C-alpha cells in the first residue's frame, strides 16, 4: 500500500522500496550540473552538428539541448544558426535572443510559409527571439492575417506570450515575465527565508468552506528579490480546492495583508476538512541562494521556481487582471506533487499596478 515505505534519500512516504520520483529527478539534475566546461562545450557542439534532431522530442539531441538551456542557460548562436538551417522549429527556446541574421531567417520563413503548423512554430520561435523587429512582424500579422491564420486558434499576440511578452492593439509591448529566476529549495524546518510557501490561514473560502492558504508570501525588500519591484510583502491567498475549477484572485497590501476575491465556480464542500491541507502547510521550501537559468527545469514538474519562464503543463496562459483587464505577469509555479500527494501545477501571476494576484491550475 502507498506509504508502506519511505524514500531512502528524503524520508518521504512512498509505495515502493528505494527513492521517490522527486529525488530521482534531483539526482539527474545534480548529474547535469556537475558537467565541466569542456563537457558543456562538447555537448553544445554535438547539438549543433545534429540540429535536425531538435525536431524530434524523443531524441538525445533534443534532451541535451534542453539540459543545456534549462540548467546551464547555455544558448549558442552556432546552435541557433544550425537549427534554422535544418528547419528545426519545434524547440522554440533554442531561438531565445537569437542574433539578427537568425531572426531575419525566421521572419523570411514565416512570411513565405503556407502551412499553418509551421507558421505556429515559427511565431513561437520569433517570440523567443523577442526583439523589436520580431514584435513588429507579429503585430503586422495580427493586423493583416495570412491565409493560414484561419486554421489557428489564437492571434499572433498570443503566440508572442510564448516568449514572455505580448502587445496591445496599438502594438505596444508588455512584459509578462520577470527576467530573473530563483529555485525554491527544501531546507530545515524554521529556516529563515523571504519566501514562504503554503501558510495556513484562519479564514475560510466563501464558496466551499475550506480553509484558505497563503500559497506564496514574498518579501520583496530582500536583496535577492529586488527584481520584483515590490517594496513590501506580496501575499497570494488561495483556496486550493476551488482553484482546480477556475482561476482564483486575491488582493494584497504591502504590509502583508491579503484577501481572496469571491469565486463564481468552485469545488465541493470542504468545511471541516482542515487536515487535508496540513501536508501543504508543513512544507519546508525556501528561496534558493543563487539565481538560475530563466528556463530552469521548464521541461520538468519536479522543481518549484520564482521568476523566469513557467513549465506549462498545457499551453502557456496568462490571466487577465480583473481590475484593469490587462494581462498579468507570471510570478511563480508550485507543483502540487512537491507539496502534497496531488497532481498538476499552480501558476501564480501578478498585476503590480492593481496589487492583484491570480492563480490557476493545470494538469494532464
Overview of the structural elements:
- With 364 residues, this protein is α+β, with helices and mostly antiparallel strands.
- The protein is 28% helix and 21% strand.
- The chain has helices spanning 21-33, 37-49, 60-72, 77-86, 100-112, 116-129, 132-143, 156-160, 278-281, 336-339; strands at 5-6, 13-14, 165-167, 173-175, 181-186, 195-204, 211-219, 233-238, 248-252, 258-260, 285-287, 304-307, 329-335, 345-351, 356-362.
- It has an eight-stranded antiparallel beta sheet. A three-stranded antiparallel beta sheet has the order 6-7-8. A two-stranded antiparallel sheet has the order 1-2.
- The protein is globular.
- The model has no long low-confidence stretch (mean pLDDT 94).
Amino acid at each position: 500500500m502507498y506509504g508502506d515505505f519511505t524514500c531512502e534519500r528524503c524520508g518521504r512516504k512512498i509505495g515502493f522500496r528505494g527513492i521517490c520520483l522527486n529525488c530521482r529527478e534531483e539526482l539527474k539534475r545534480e548529474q547535469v550540473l556537475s558537467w565541466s566546461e569542456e563537457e558543456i562545450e562538447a555537448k553544445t557542439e554535438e547539438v549543433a552538428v545534429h540540429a535536425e534532431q531538435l525536431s524530434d522530442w524523443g531524441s538525445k539531441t533534443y534532451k541535451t539541448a534542453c539540459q543545456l538551456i534549462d540548467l546551464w542557460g547555455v544558448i549558442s548562436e552556432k546552435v541557433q544558426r544550425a537549427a534554422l538551417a535544418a528547419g528545426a522549429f519545434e524547440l522554440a527556446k533554442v531561438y531565445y535572443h537569437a542574433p539578427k541574421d537568425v531572426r531575419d531567417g525566421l521572419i523570411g520563413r514565416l512570411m513565405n510559409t503556407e502551412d499553418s503548423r509551421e507558421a505556429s512554430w515559427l511565431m513561437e520561435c520569433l517570440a523567443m527571439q523577442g526583439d523589436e523587429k520580431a514584435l513588429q512582424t507579429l503585430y503586422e500579422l495580427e493586423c493583416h492575417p495570412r491565409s493560414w491564420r484561419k486554421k489557428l486558434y489564437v492571434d499572433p499576440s498570443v503566440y508572442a506570450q510564448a516568449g514572455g511578452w505580448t502587445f496591445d492593439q496599438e502594438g505596444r509591448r508588455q512584459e509578462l515575465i520577470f527576467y530573473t529566476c530563483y529555485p525554491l529549495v527544501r531546507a530545515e524546518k524554521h529556516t529563515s527565508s523571504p519566501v514562504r510557501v503554503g501558510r495556513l490561514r484562519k479564514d475560510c473560502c466563501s464558496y466551499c468552506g475550506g480553509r484558505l492558504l497563503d500559497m506564496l508570501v514574498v518579501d520583496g525588500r530582500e536583496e535577492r528579490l529586488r527584481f520584483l519591484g515590490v517594496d513590501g510583502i506580496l501575499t497570494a491567498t488561495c483556496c486550493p480546492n476551488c482553484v482546480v475549477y477556475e482561476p482564483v484572485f486575491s488582493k494584497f497590501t504591502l504590509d502583508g495583508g491579503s484577501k481572496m476575491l469571491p469565486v463564481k465556480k468552485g469545488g465541493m464542500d470542504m468545511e471541516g476538512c482542515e487536515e487535508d491541507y496540513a501536508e501543504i502547510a508543513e512544507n519546508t521550501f525556501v528561496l534558493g541562494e543563487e539565481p538560475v537559468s530563466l528556463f530552469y527545469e521548464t521541461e520538468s514538474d519536479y522543481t518549484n521556481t520564482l521568476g523566469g519562464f513557467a513549465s506549462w503543463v498545457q499551453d502557456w496562459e496568462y490571466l487577465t487582471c480583473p481590475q484593469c483587464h490587462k494581462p498579468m505577469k507570471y510570478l511563480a509555479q508550485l507543483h502540487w506533487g512537491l507539496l502534497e500527494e496531488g497532481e498538476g501545477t499552480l501558476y501564480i501571476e501578478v498585476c503590480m499596478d492593481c496589487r492583484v494576484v491570480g492563480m490557476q491550475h493545470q494538469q494532464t
